[in-house]
Design brief:
mainly alpha; 11 helices; Myb/SANT-like_dom; Myb/SANT-like domain-containing protein; two-stranded antiparallel ribbon; 3 domains; globular
């Protein structure tokens, strides 16, 4: 049968996908075959619709694509307005005309943002892109020093030499000792520098990178203090989200995600409580 993915069915399947991800059944970019079997079984119990694994995999891939597009749209939103009610960018037709060229597929979010965003974040957040060697400030994680050092060392500069192959000098009549030298530097400009010289240069580069990396981490964590979960939760209480309330509960879920904390902090104190109420209503239907 043809898969019917209306708003409600999509919400249900994302919740089932999340259940499998949290159970550790997504070893790479997709769920395991048994996990898809379980999703299909539970989906049938809830909706009465029976879908095969290929249909569920196709839906997974489509959702991953939409999530990736919406993330790019959020990054492009910098400096633009944000419609909290519709969870999307608040801009004129000209802005969207350019955006749909820069980000193919984003125009579908002009009237309403990505649905089930929190579920999709859990499903795809660490597999939508590979930024292990590049630091995007929005990722919240600085690059490792190891990655920086690996990219800095040019191994092609190091000529293969046998360090055990020594150069012997003619024995001196004063001392019979044989002098040996390792890592001899060649001054001929037509030849590559030997190991000792190149390694000294690379060690200097590594030292500079370590200093920069340490500075980056200090700067990052200093900045992160103002938007940490604990500090933003403290900001939620004065606006009316007292402990034990629905608003305080939804805040504890939302503020796990950095971008949600930043959205909350960007709002005026008068609108924050209403925003939390709507977030709770959207997720739990109360």
């Amino acid at each position: 049968m043809v898969a019917e993915w209306n708003i409600e069915n999509t919400r249900i399947v994302t919740e089932l996908f999340v259940k499998q991800v949290r159970a550790g059944n997504r070893p790479n970019t997709h769920l395991t075959s048994n996990a898809y079997d379980e999703v299909g079984r539970e989906f049938k119990l809830i909706t009465g619709l029976e879908y095969i694994n290929d249909q569920l995999k196709n839906k997974w891939d489509k959702l991953r694509g939409e999530y990736s597009i919406f993330k790019k749209l959020k990054l492009k939103e910098t400096g633009a307005g944000w419609d909290i009610e519709r969870n999307t960018v608040k801009q004129d037709a000209e802005w969207w005309k350019k955006a749909k060229i820069d980000i193919p597929g984003c125009y579908k979010f002009r009237k309403h943002g990505l649905r089930n965003e929190e579920n999709l974040r859990i499903m795809f957040e660490d597999i939508t892109s590979d930024g292990s060697d590049h630091w995007n400030p929005t990722s919240g994680i600085p690059p490792t020093s190891t990655a920086l050092i690996s990219s800095a060392i040019n191994l092609e500069q190091i000529e293969d030499v046998d360090l055990l192959e020594d150069t012997q000098e003619t024995p001196s009549p004063v001392t019979p000792k044989v002098n040996k030298r390792l890592g001899k530097i060649i001054c001929d400009t037509n030849k590559k520098p030997k190991t000792a010289q190149v390694m000294q240069e690379q060690i200097t580069v590594i030292g500079d990178i370590c200093k920069e990396s340490h500075s980056t981490f200090q700067s990052f964590f200093k900045h992160d203090d103002t938007t940490s979960v604990a500090s933003v939760m403290k900001e939620a209480i004065p606006c009316g989200a007292i402990e034990g309330s629905d608003e305080h509960f939804i805040a504890t879920e939302l503020f796990i995600k950095r971008e949600q904390r930043e959205i909350f902090l960007s709002m005026s104190a008068e609108t924050r409580l209403g925003w939390l109420k709507r977030k709770f209503s959207v997720k739990y239907g109360n």
